[in-house]
Design brief:
By secondary structure, the protein is α/β, with parallel strands linked by helices. It contains 5 helices and 9 strands. The longest helix has 19 residues. It starts with 6 loop residues before the first strand and ends in an 8-residue tail after the last helix. The mean pLDDT is about 95. The protein binds 2 DNA strands through strand 2. DNA repair enzyme involved in the repair of deaminated bases. Selectively cleaves double-stranded DNA at the second phosphodiester bond 3' to a deoxyinosine leaving behind the intact lesion on the nicked DNA.
DNA sequence: GCGACAG
DNA sequence: ATCTTGTCGC
């Protein structure tokens, strides 16, 4: 219907972006102080929700990010944008954000309208240092964010019940920093945590509102399909690692 | 000391 | 994340 053509932007690694693990850890410590966790966040089913995801070609050092905005009530696509650029950091468990954030921000900025709540593909607070990708994106954009990961990370969770909506806590000490949430009956759960300006309860409510049919949120599904297509198209222009 | 480890 | 065929099911 009103599905816009995806706007394509060029992403680049910002000046002063961390190049070592030690520098990245220091940035996490610095940004973590800016997290806002005492807000309920926007209610599910209203306004807009934007999913972000990235695809890589590590051999060529290229990353493509996609941001897809949906009407929260109907889940219809209202805006799409992609950003292609250089990979900003190697993959290090716990430092994923340094790899994806530059391209993700470029895609979000290229959207035709306000993103609303941002759903990230990965963890938020349920992170060894309580500052996963969703927190990072939230602090840098000022937008409410949640993290929905497909696989368990460093925090173990008991298996949730078998029905849609059943969940089990992800604990960091005594604190519940995330949940293994069953979005489809009898199907492997997803791992939800708050990123910025959202409560864990609300993050789970949004996740359920976005999964009327599949295990993963509609936002993530759309963004995943778009960034893969964008990466392919961006690579089609250049055959391979040429002699430059 | 040796693995495991979001994407 | 990515490399990969066929196959079972709606």
């Amino acid at each position: 219907m009103t599905d816009t053509q995806a706007v394509t932007a060029a992403a680049r690694v910002p000046e002063g972006w961390p190049t070592t693990e030690a520098a990245a850890l220091a940035v996490q410590d610095e940004l973590r102080a800016l997290l806002v966790l005492d807000r309920e966040g926007p209610p599910p089913g209203e306004g807009r929700v934007t999913g972000v995801d990235v695809a890589y070609d590590d051999a060529r050092g290229v990353v493509a990010a996609a941001a897809v905005t949906l009407d929260a009530a109907t889940l219809a696509v209202t805006g799409r944008a992609v950003a292609v650029g250089p990979v900003a950091f190697p993959y290090v468990p716990g430092l994923l954000a340094f790899r994806e954030v530059p391209a993700v921000l470029a895609a979000l900025e290229a959207l035709p309208g306000p993103p609303g709540l941002v759903v990230c593909d990965g963890y938020g607070l349920a992170h060894p240092r309580r500052f996963g990708l969703a927190c990072h994106v939230g602090v840098l954009t000022g937008l409410p964010t949640v993290g929905v990961a497909k696989n368990p990370f460093v925090l173990a969770a008991d298996p949730p019940g078998p029905r849609r909506g059943d969940h089990a806590p992800l604990r960091l000490g005594e604190e519940e920093v995330g949940r293994a949430l069953r979005t489809r009956a009898g199907v492997k759960p997803v791992f939800v945590s708050a990123g910025h300006l959202v409560s864990l309860d609300n993050a789970c409510a949004h996740t359920l509102a976005l999964t009327p049919r599949y295990r993963l949120p509609e936002t993530t599904r759309h963004a995943d399909a778009l960034c893969r297509r964008a990466l392919k198209e961006a690579l089609a222009g250049r055959p391979a690692t040429t002699t430059d």
